[in-house]
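Re: the request from the purification team.
They wanted to know what the chain is likely to look like in 3D before they choose a buffer screen. I agreed to run a prediction and write the result into the notebook, where they can find it.
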Amino acid sequence: MGLKTNKKKAFTLQKSGFTLIEVVVTVLIFTVTLSAATHFFWSGYSTWNRTNEITDNHQSARFAVYNITKRIKKFNKDKIYLVEGGRRLFLWEGENIDYDIRLLHKDLCIGDYPYASNIENLKFSYKKIIFNENSYYLSDTNKEGERIKRIDNWDLIKVELVTRSKNSSYKLETFVSPKAELN
């Protein structure tokens, strides 16, 4: 008969998982990466939002001034009246006011309809062009304290408009010549 030997199996420790340090380092790297990506996304979003707000302000001001100047150019200067210290403009032909241009709360209204929002300030003034030998300049013909200003000695109307929102302010001003009178 032969001898039977018992073969004992030796158990060896096999690595079959992650250590605590590996898990902590992995979570830390993931957290830093996710935090950086979130900051990058939020920064881009807030920049886009701020830029969009500024663009809306500029567009609102340009649209408002365009509509005001378009209407002023249709009237002779004897049909244009500044009211309330230059804060309101009446344009009319005949018996009724055709356009009442004013600021109502923060909306620019032409007649009964709001045309632009976020308007902080709207001001009109008469200007006279004065020529010198080599140049010319604009003179202010407004007189303070008058409720209705009817001045015949003027050439242009200055329109000043300021829009404002949370992060931005935009001032736009222009000079408008009324419709030329045919003699």
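For the purification team: The first strand starts at residue 80 and ends at 83.
Please add any questions underneath this entry.
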